[in-house]
Amino acid sequence: MPGATTPDSPPSPAPSNVPELGLVPDAVTLGAPESRVLVIATGGTICMKRGLNGYVPERNFMNLLSPRPSFNDHSNQPPMPCYADAVNAEALTYLPSLRTPLSTYNRHVRFSVLEFDPLLDSSSINAKGWGEIARSIERNYQLFDAFVVLHGTDSLAYTASALGFMIGSLGKAIIFTGSQAPMTELQSDATDNLLGSLIIAGHFMIPEVCLYFGFKLFRGNRVTKSNSVAFNAFSSPNHPPLATVGINITINWNLITRPSTLTPFHISKYPPGTAHVACLRIFPGILPEMIEGVLKLEGLRGLVLETFGSGNAPEDGRLLEVLRQGVEDGIVIVNVTQCMTGSVCPLYAAGTALARTGVVFGMDMTTEAALTKLSCLLADPNLSVQEIRSMMSRSLRGEITEQTLMSFAHPPQLQKISQQQALGPKQAALSVLAYAIKKGDEIGVREALKQAKAEGEGWLLNEFDYAGFTPLHIAATSPSLAILREFLSQGASVHLRNHDGHTPLYLAADAGKLDNVKLLRESGAHLHTEEIELATILRGRLEAGSGKAICWEMAGA
């Protein structure tokens, strides 16, 4: 639920300021060991300095951060392992690391910087650059808790959108940021943007591709650059921020999307191309021949059409015929509005006329999201044109606002527990889940999750109790595989760590639950870097081939 996240952590025993049945915030990894974040510096203004002819790229970004107390507690942290070689993907290198001072959540964020060579110009980036960023994340996915990507602002909204569609089953935060002025300038937003990104990435398990700018965290495929000079350069006109940063950090947990397929993290096998997709803005007096010229470009397979208002275009019979012919030729044409706020919908005859030609309504997608989504879908040879048209009007990564029915009733068991124990809705829901898990009550678990989802209570999936356990930690050692599968299919995070710093996978292996370990691994779980050494020691003490030894081996020890 929306609300300011408090700095209370769940040490054991619980401190006096945490009620016995109190809950700590959803998906904040409090009390666990320090977080590890990889900062991927691709280029942009944030990585520049003032030169004789203006701003120029400056390498060794880590040297800018080292003297700054906000980024360095001077604890002389050792280097962190990283796969930094794009040519030799198996070559493990060690990058210098810094650690932030202790946050109000009693955590440090330790980070290293992986610099692209050469640094990319954001105004010249294309699908190849998107692929390089995605592969850097893929190679290091199991080594870090989250990722922050430094990027130029000109095309930042396009890259953030593209990465969201290229990546599947994401379980960790990927946060894009940049700045309007370099880190080296006295008047700059660079420090606030990078530090805010690091704090959110290092403390909260938000499994989305996001963009952080001006003290706000946005869904990456919802943003557009709306100001070229102000520090609040980006807007998300049709979707609220996922988080806002002030004295407190407010996370809108009910807006966070989570993976619901039991598959591990992956990037698309079919990298998107931008050459076969075009964008055309409708204007008063546009000639049908102009649109026809675009549609006849060699190799064109998709067109994003920016129209007036709610999706309107000139009611010109010749223009409509040109669009109809383009659709019949197999070109996917998507209609998005030129307006900052609003949606394409069939309110006017001028808009429904476009729909009758076969043009797809893009609803409230931004131009950036529509273009990158269309590019990614067209790259997949397994999708037909009709399937792509259908998918363009459906939300795949939260890029389209979908209407949902509202429920006003709590399940009877929640009402009963709340009345008997005077618990709030969070406490009652967690009590119902814990009781159902321990009993192996599959129906009870499904009903509680279903009701919470209907009410938009995303907190139920990844809620911590005062001991630092989520329901998935409990389900990981449950005798009911169906319950564990239910949590995973509903989007419970496999990467959250309990008070002792352990993931659900570690607990399942330690309990000798082979089937649970298999299912968690299939869903993208892996041992945290700090768990592997201990897990390997425990495995070495067991008889080779024993059930528990096999569990540890399958877990990755």
Short description:
With 557 residues, the protein is of the alpha/beta class. 32% of the residues lie in helices and 17% in strands.
What can you tell me about this protein's structure?
This protein is an alpha/beta fold. It folds into three domains: 34-257, Rossmann fold (3-Layer(aba) Sandwich), CATH 3.40.50; 277-392, Rossmann fold (3-Layer(aba) Sandwich); 412-555, Serine Threonine Protein Phosphatase 5, Tetratricopeptide repeat (Alpha Horseshoe), CATH 1.25.40.20. The chain contains 18 helices and 24 strands. It has a ten-stranded mixed sheet, sandwiched between helices. A four-stranded parallel sheet has the order 20-21-22-23, with helices on both faces. Helix 16 runs parallel beside helix 18. The protein is globular. The chain starts with a strand and ends with a helix. Mean pLDDT is 87; it is low at 1-27 and 405-423. Residues 1-20 are annotated as: Disordered. This is asparaginase. It comes from Terfezia boudieri ATCC MYA-4762.
SSE blueprint and pairings:
Layout: E1 4-5, E2 23-24, E3 35-43, E4 48-51, E5 54-57, H1 61-65, E6 80-83, E7 92-95, E8 97-99, E9 109-120, H2 127-139, E10 146-150, H3 156-166, E11 167-168, E12 174-177, H4 190-203, E13 209-213, E14 216-219, E15 224-225, E16 234-235, E17 243-245, E18 249-251, E19 266-267, E20 277-281, H5 288-295, E21 302-307, H6 317-328, E22 332-337, H7 349-356, E23 360-361, H8 367-378, H9 385-392, H10 412-421, H11 425-439, H12 442-454, E24 464-465, H13 471-475, H14 481-489, H15 504-510, H16 514-522, H17 529-540, H18 547-555
Parallel strand pairs: 3-9, 3-10, 10-12, 12-13, 20-21, 21-22, 22-23
Antiparallel strand pairs: 1-18, 2-24, 4-5, 6-7, 8-9, 11-19, 13-14, 14-17, 15-16, 17-18
